[in-house]
Each structure stands twice: as C-alpha cells, then as structure tokens.
Amino acid sequence: MNLMMPGNTTRQWHDMNLTAPRDRPPLDRAIILRILSYFRPYSGYALLTLGAIGLNSLLGLIPPLLVRDVFDRSLPAGDVRLLAMLVGGMILASLGSGLAFVGQNYLSTLVGQRVMFDLRNQMYARLLSMSLRFFTDTKTGEIMSRVTNDVNGVQQVVTVTMVMTATNALTVASTLFMMFTINWRLALVSVAVLPLFILPTRRVGKLRQRIAGEAQAKLAELNNLMHETLSIGGALLVKAFTRQRDEQARFVARNRELMRLQIRQSLVGRWFFMWLSLFGTVGPALIYGYGAWLAIRGDLTPGSIVSFVALLGRLYSPASMLLNVQVELFTSLALFRRIFEYLDLPVEIRDRPGASELPELRGRIAFEDVFFTYRPDAAPALAGVSFAIEPGQLAALVGPSGAGKTTITYLLPRLYDVTAGRITIDGHDIRDVTLESLARQIGMVTQETFLFHGTVRENLLYAKPDATGEELAAACRAAHIDDVIAALPEGYDTVVGERGYRLSGGEKQRLAIARVILKNPRILILDEATSALDSESERLVQEALERLMVGRTSLVIAHRLSTILKADVILVLDGGRVVERGTHAELLARGGLYARLYAQQFGAAAPAERPAASEDESGGSTAAPSPSVA
Ligand code: ADP
Which of 5, 128, 253, 527 could pair with 557 as two cysteines, CB 3.0-4.6 Å apart? Predict the structure, then answer.
C-alpha cells in the first residue's frame, strides 16, 4: 500500500496500463502540454528531425516515378543512356533517403536521450527529498523501476510514437498525392482495398498489446520475487528457514505463466500475417488487372502500372500503422502519467517559506503535547508526549517494545513531522528552521550502521567532507576504531560496505560513532544495540559512546543498565505516553512500570551489563530486523 498516492496504488497503475486501449483515461490538454514542455528545450533538434523525415519520404517517391519512365520512355525507344540515368537516379534517391533516415535517427535519439536525462535527474532529486514514510511504504524495486524502466520508455515514445507517426503521415500523404496525380481511378481502387488490410492489423495490434501488457506485469512479478529472495537479507531468510524448494516452486509457477504469455504473444498474429502476405500479392494483382484493362483502352501507360504497384508498397503498411497510432499514443500517455505521478509526489517534509537557520545551540529539547500517527487509520504511536531535556543532559527512553521510543527519535530530526503538538530546540519550533541547519546539529547512531560501498575514509568523510587526516585520526581514536582501521589490509583505503570488507557489528558501530564525532553535533540520538556484542566489543563501544555524549544533549533508547543509571532523566514510555519519569532511584522507589521492567530484565542476580530494560529482545529470528530499525 502506498500512502503517498491515495487511490492510485502501483497495482492500479499496472492495470491501467494493461487496459489502456479499452479503458482510456481522458486525453487532457494539461498532460500533453506538460509532455511538450520537456521537449521545448530541444525544439531546434525536433524541427531538424521533422525536416529529415520530410526529406526521407519525398526522396522515397522518386524511384517509383522513375520506374514509369523506364517502361514508358527508355524501353520503347531503346534509349540506353536514358535508362542508365534513370537507374542512377533511383540509386541516388535511395541513397539520399537513406542518409536522411540516418540523420533523423540520430536527431531523434538525441532528443529522446536528453529528455530522459532531464526526467531522471528530476525524479532522483524528488526521491531524495521524500520523507522516510515514502521509503518505508514503497518497495525499492518499484522505485527503481520507475526511474529506469519508465523513463527508458520515453525513447520508445520519441522514436516510435512521434517519429513513426510523422514518417507515416508524410509517406501516406505524398504517396496518395502521387497516385491520384498518375491516375485517379486506379488510385481509388487502391484506397478502396485499404480497409481489408488495415482492419485486421488493428485487431491484431490491440490483442498483441494486451498480451504484451500482461507479460510485462508477469515479468515485473518475477523480478520482484527475485529481488526479494536474491537480496542478502532475503537469501538469508530463505536459507534460515530452508525454503528453497517453495521459492523455486513459486518461481517456476510465475515463470511458466510468463512463458505461456510470451508464446501467445508471438503466435497471436500468425494467421493474420499469412493473410497479410497473401494480400501483399493480391493488391498488386488487382492493380495489374485493372491497370492493364485501362492500358488496353489506352487510358494508362504500362509504366504507370509498374509505378503504381511500387507506390502501393509505400501505402499499406504506413497507413495501417497510422491507424494504430492512438494505441501508441495512449500507451505513451500512460507512461508519462506514471512518470509525472512520481514527479508530483508531495514532499511531505520541507522547509517552511522563510524558514530560518538554526543558530548555535545550547541544546534544550522540548516535546510539547506531541501526537503522532504513522497512518491515518492506525492508532497514534505517540499520544500527548511532553518532556524537556536540559542542555548537556542525558535522557534515557525506556519501555516495552512498540511503546514509541523509536518514533520519538524519528520526530526530533524531522524524519517525520508531528501530527499535533510541537517540538522545540532552544525554543525554536523545529518546523520553523531549515532542515539542513537542523540536521547539522543532530547526530544519530542507530542499531544498524549503514556503510556505503566505498573506502573507510569516504564513509567517514560523509559526515564532514573537508575533514583533515588528523581530524579523521582523532575521531577514530576517540571512537576506539583506530586500531581496527590500522589493521585493515589497506587502512583507511579499505573498501567496506555491502560488497566490501566485512566489519563486525561492534566495529561498524564504532565507525558510526567516529562519523558522528566528526560531525560534532550539539544533539545526539542514540539507539543502543539490542544484539549482544562480545564483552570486549561492548566495552569499546560503551567507552566511545560515553566520550561522544560528553557536552551534548543526548536522547538514548537505552538497553544498557549503565546508561540508565547514568541518565539525568529516565522517560518511561508505554502505549505512546510517558507514564513515568525520574532518575533510576526515584523510579525504583515508585514501584511502577519501571520497577517492574527493571525486576524483569535485571532481576535479583542481574548480570551487570545485560542488554535489556525493554522487551525488544523477546522472540524474533536472526534474520528479522530489530524492532527499532524496522
Ligand atoms: P519502540 O521503538 O518503542 O519499540 P516504535 O516507536 O517503533 O516503538 O513504534 C511505536 C508504534 O508505532 C508501534 O505500535 C509500531 O507498530 C508503530 N509503527 C512504527 N513504525 C511504523 C510505520 N512505519 N508504520 C506504521 N506503524 C508504525
């Protein structure tokens, strides 16, 4: 389900595409003007293309005309010189139209590719500005497909729909004009048999298109299935549950449907094509018959008959393609609609007009009666949350899974906006300041550290592109990751990330901490790991975090007892509300939810550093993402 497009889900778009010829969307001016606006910057090229198309179809008329003189003038007179000239003319004309075709091809490719270039850039820019909600609600494969496949379809629109339409229209018009000039009666006969040829072409065209649409949808399903099961996480899941056989069966079933559709698609026109090739000889036969009869009566020269048959070859298939053009047109429109739909996605979180820069901060954070709902139909994840954290304080968020801890950490950097209430930093409503200045002041260390495919250095510089080597080294020392980097095969130049050198969980976390140290934000958001690190790793991470927190206002989803004990204030959440607040001692004395959670997690014989204080750890397989990251 896609929240961003109410009523226009991906599924429906697919269906619309399939049924385009039957269930036509209105052909509105707005969308056509909008499409044209993308071509406007290249209108010079477009005009040149049109010129080349015109030249191509005019030059194409010359050989059929010269044929007439071969039969009517050079043959009866035995004029070899004239014959040579006529044949030479035919060859030259063909050469000329060939060249014009090359030019037209080149120009239309240029136009198409440039429009695609612009569209892809626009789409990517729009996607980057989408809120987290969009990415949690939309499949990555779907996003990729829009940016690549849909945009690639534009070239097809340019070369097939636009160029072919112009070519066919010009060819048909010039050929008809020529035919009527030569002999109007013969021309009428040729035109009269056109429907025999055109009607079946249209039917087969539509049928083929429908099957092609279905096949494409099947292919997309197949791709999605592969995308899911062949990604690292998916592959892990399949293996962990030994589901290979079921996945294979699922794949085979889809694959078989695809094969059936594609077989149908290529076979659907077989009778029609037989008819077509039959007609390719029947049409000329009629012309020969009627033409010869006219010639016998002295109304037509034999050369004109030959010329006519040659012209006939330029009439039928362009005419039938021209009649199919509206199918192409609607497919193209559907394509552009899909593209525009993405370009028009509302940017949910953006700078307010006149948003100011967040000044140097002291770091006081306040939530004032904050409500938040992920989906309109869901229960609120936060319902009236109020609290304040003074500059430099450490606040620990504690509570059962699903209480709203992660949501709080999402709202502060405006990954989502509050549904009601407000959040202030040093008294500034975070919606009144620029996103960039807000983001600069907040550092996040999440449970899952994402490293780009790139070197250690590049990953660190992401936080501060102009950091010096010394700054890097100092940050890595403070994060206790310097020794690890030094021991890597290529030190700072070792490639890490999805397909690079695999760092352990603790090492990745320390690298993330180094990244935040470099960024040096005033406010720190921390989601302590629930997955147990070995004690050495744990100690290093803990030390690094402690250094990181010094002098910053920190909001921590706490799982470690040491963090909780050190917190200036513990906020106990349950069901989207702050149900208790205070220090460890105060809350224990109170004997409420906190005391219960504490007893559950750390019990009487509490191991000092068990990751706990929430129920997040219960259940779940290794392959399942941890709750706060999901
Ligand atoms: P915690 O971090 O305390 O485990 P969360 O803040 O992640 O809890 O979640 C609070 C509530 O919001 C939960 O009921 C959860 O199911 C819901 N929730 C979290 N993320 C989403 C989402 N993307 N869409 C819909 N509901 C969500």
Answer: 527
